[in-house]
Amino acid sequence: MVTPSRIALARKRRGMTLAQLSDRSSISLQSLSNYETGRTAPRSATLNKLASALDFPAAFFQGPPLEELPADGISWRARSKTSPRVLDAARAAGTLGATLYTWIAESFRLPAVDVPSLGRPDPETAAAMVRTRWELGEAPAPNMVHLLEAHGVRVFSLDPDHAEVDAFAVWREGVPFVFLNTLKSAERGRFDAAHELGHLVMHGSEHACSGPEAERQANAFASAFLMPRASVLGHMPSGAHVDQIIRGKRIWKVSAMALTYRLHDLSLLTDWQYRSTCAELSRLGYRSAEPESMGERETSQVLTKVFAALRTKGVKPSAVAAELGLTSEEMNRLLFGLTLTTVAGGGQQTAPTPTRHLSAVSSPPSVAARPPSNPVPAFARP
After folding, report:
1. CA dihedral angle for residue 90, residue 92, residue 93, residue 96, rounded to 10 degrees
2. Tell me: the pLDDT tens digits for 140-165?
3. Fewest beta carbons within 10 Å, which of 58, 112, 167, 252?
4. 3-state DSSP helix/strand/coil percent for the chain, to nearest 5?
5. At residue 303, what are phi and psi to the nearest 5 degrees?
6. Tens of pLDDT, residues 274-322
7. Per-residue pLDDT tens for 34-43?
């Protein structure tokens, strides 16, 4: 039996209109509309044509209905002119990511959610409150992906096809999700992760906020979270030169532009010094890239551990993909850049990484043997 909503989800995932899918599949526009609304169901041969055109296994369309990520609750970090179709494609990919995490949660015990909902404080205060709650003090933030995961945030990567979207965050049924663009520099990826944390903390379902003001607040939160006021005042001189900023950015593992903005925000740079520093950094290539980058992007520890544990039981990622009705390529896109690499160690002292709080306490069964109603713990925080 075909599930109509899965046809619509797969079409959105590929960024297609009904007309484009009709052209690609040689199925009439009216028939496609009927399939998506459930007025009629495609026969086996037609379903195979749909599956081929959308590059999804036919089994995907025969699974139970999938609950899409709530469109109204998503905080997009994307270019202002990004088309709704691209955002729909990214949201559909996020829905598949959430589905994968549901599957993982049935077999592994994941860190409990510990993300406060703070609607009223200003971003600087909100960042300080989260730092205090997470016992980070004034030290530079550790690996941001690990930090989010250790506090219950489910982190996935965005498909490289969605380069216009930097990141997005959303709450679903009390669980926070963050999706990150993995094509950006390591420093900008850390800022995106902190930015999305700001949305989760300040703009959750209880304190909905969107648009330019929400983006400004999330940027201010990320800046304060990654570069605490006392830490910056203790390390950076007033009127810092460009070479000092380029050295200083390594302390907090942020971009040179982000540190320059923070110095101006803390009145360590005058308006004139801020403008001239930005101009010089742009000339050196720091506006669109990070010439002296920290290197490898930060990656997921949870996903790495999950798939490593599965491999010890002979369960390949392709078997997981098949159980979810996805192609291996589709699932790899959700994990792109998160499980294949590790972060190079830095010379700066950072707050204790939360990743060490994750530990394996038992092994998962094979996919085939996994009882769906009997969760098997694998990771736990002490």
Report:
1. 160
2. 999 999 999 999 999 998 877 777 78
3. 112
4. 50, 5, 40
5. -65, -40
6. 999 999 999 999 988 888 777 788 888 899 899 889 989 999 888 999 9
7. 999 999 999 9
Q: Is 156 helix (H, G, I), strand (E, B) or coil?
A: strand
Provide φ and ψ at 90, rounded to 5°: -65, -40
Q: What is the pLDDT of residues 343-381, one digit of tens each?
A: 333 334 444 444 434 333 344 433 333 333 333 334 433
Residues in the chain: 382
Long-range contacts of 259-266 (CB under 8 A, 24+ apart): 259/227, 261/223, 262/223, 262/227, 262/232, 263/232, 263/236, 265/220, 265/223, 266/229, 266/232, 266/233
Residues 6+ apart with CB under 8 A from 374: none
Residue with tokens 């109509």: 4
Is pLDDT above 90 for 79? Answer: no
Token duo for residue 170: 């959303």
DSSP string, 108-125: SPPPPP------SS-HHH
Express each pLDDT in 8-67 by its tens digit.
999 999 999 999 999 999 999 999 999 999 999 999 999 999 999 999 999 999 999 988
Asked if 158 and 170 count as a contact pair (C-beta separation under 8 A), the reply is no
Q: Which residue from 19, 3, 98 is spatially nearest to 58, judged by alpha carbons?
A: 3
Cα pseudo-dihedral 234, 237, 239, 240, rounded to 10: -100
Q: Token pair for residue 302?
A: 């949870």
Q: Which DSSP state fits 288?
A: T
Number of H helices, E strands in the chain: 16, 6
Show the tokens assigned to 137. Answer: 């003090």
Residues 6+ apart with CB under 8 A from 48: 58
Collapsed DSSP state (helix, strand, coil) of residue 149: helix
Nearest 5°: phi and psi at 187? Answer: -65, -45
Q: Which residues, including other chains, have CB under 8 Å from residue 188's CB and lie 6 or more apart?
A: 255, 290
Residue 236, both tokens: 């950076």
The pair phi, psi for residue 359, each rounded to 5°, is -145, 145
Is the separation of the CB atoms in 225 and 158 below 8 Å? no
